[in-house]
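User: I need a structural model of Leucine-rich repeat-containing protein 14B from Bucorvus abyssinicus for a docking pre-check later this week. Nothing fancy, just the predicted structure tokens so I can convert them on my end. Input:
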Amino acid sequence: RATMKSLRFISAEAFVSNSELARKSLGGVAHNLFPLLFKASYLLEQGEVIHDLVENWPLVDFNMGKLLGTTVDYQEDLSHRTCSVCLESCLTGLRDYVLNHPSPYVKRLKVVDLTGIKDVEVQFCECKKTMGRWARTQLLSKLCLELLVYLQQTQCHLDTFEISIDVLIDLFVTERNYELVVQALLKKCYCPLKICCVAFRSDNLALQKFFYIIKLTDPSFLRKLEIVHNVRLEMEHLEILFNSIHFPLLMSLTLPARTFNVQRFTATDERMLTNIGEKMSKMTQLTELSMSFSILTGRIQKLLSPLKTPLKMLDVSNCSLNHADMAYLANSFHANHLEALDLSGHNIPDLYPSIFLKLLSHSSSVLRSLTLEDCNIQDTHVNMLILGLSPCQKLQEFKFFGNPLSSQGLKHLFTFLCELPMLTNVEFPVPRDCYPIGITYPIDDASLCRFDHQKYESVAEELNLILLQANREDVKASTPLFGSYDAAVQETNSELGAYLIKSFKETLEKFTTSLNKMS
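Assistant: Understood. Predicted structure tokens for Leucine-rich repeat-containing protein 14B:
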């Protein structure tokens, strides 16, 4: 659907579409028109104009989220366009803003906010080349260091050294860009562009390096911390992290798989867990917590009860929760505030159906996203699921991939899902009857794709028809065989793959050495 443009925006598009003329004329443009021209240039991917607009930016702040978001002149939100041409032009324009002297305008810029950029799966930009979070981290760090080198080697105007601009960014660090980012953070106080880390994600990084770089980011300003793939952080390391560093503004925390494992708990481990809970209680802004693939059986209350702020997002997928854990969640003050909940990997219908319904009932007034993948939900449980979901009238997203539901069960469920007014995204499993008889759940990776694809397409068409007949074209239904889209993983998958092969090789070598010693 085409979005209406004001006459001002149409005029701005016409102005920036002639790149050469627009760049020559910027000196005579009123300050308040710069944001309008920036959005028009971004839409048309006019890289050179974007560069010159940023290089001569006359305002105090430059907020990408606000500039590209819904505006009076053009309501379409462009903040999900991570166009490489546009973003590179922005960042190089920012570098040249510092170096540009004399400038047609007094340099007033104090804050650049890059955190409003959203990484999504489908890109609409013409160039089809994206610049993800990792690449933005890499480029900004590189430009800061280049700027420092240039300032040291060149006789710059004294005014240049008085420039100080806070650049707010979500950093993404892996082994491959670690050294560069560390150097940029170490020399931050000398650089006119000050990297201010608002969110930090780390993948494929040695623990020692993670501890070093996290201290350089100035954790007192950190709002989101994601320690995800191949960072071998265990409970004792987490305790050290929380004991040595304070995160007063932290709102969102993601911990890597196997951070906790209560199966091998000692009295010392119990004390450690209590201490971690107490440290988390001091993070008064914390409302999002992800601890997937840890073994937390019987310890959820110990970890979450000290929290003074209710959680809005909780991911405890594949955490081996028992009846007591689920009962705590259902009766805790968190339940009434949960907007996003992931209970994947738990046999809900067999272990705690009534407690699960109670939890849904308590969170129903606010719940927006529910994920129940690999939960052994079968056709006989569909009515129970409908009963639980009926009060969840604000639900926007429901993911239940990996459950042994038949085509018939899915049709029954989809007929109900049409009644949830705010639902826009559904991820459903390949129907059980599309797989060979005798398939066991959860399905292993080797068997995942061995289903009747033609039959699946036929069922998927029927499910979409159910949505269509209910006038619910707004609902996107899909079957992501290999998990939901993760922009960070997509961007660094080659590095992730290489790391996994290296780890596998090291494990094999250790195993071979052990065998040789035995023989």
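Before docking, keep this in mind: Residues 493-518 form the longest helix (26 residues).
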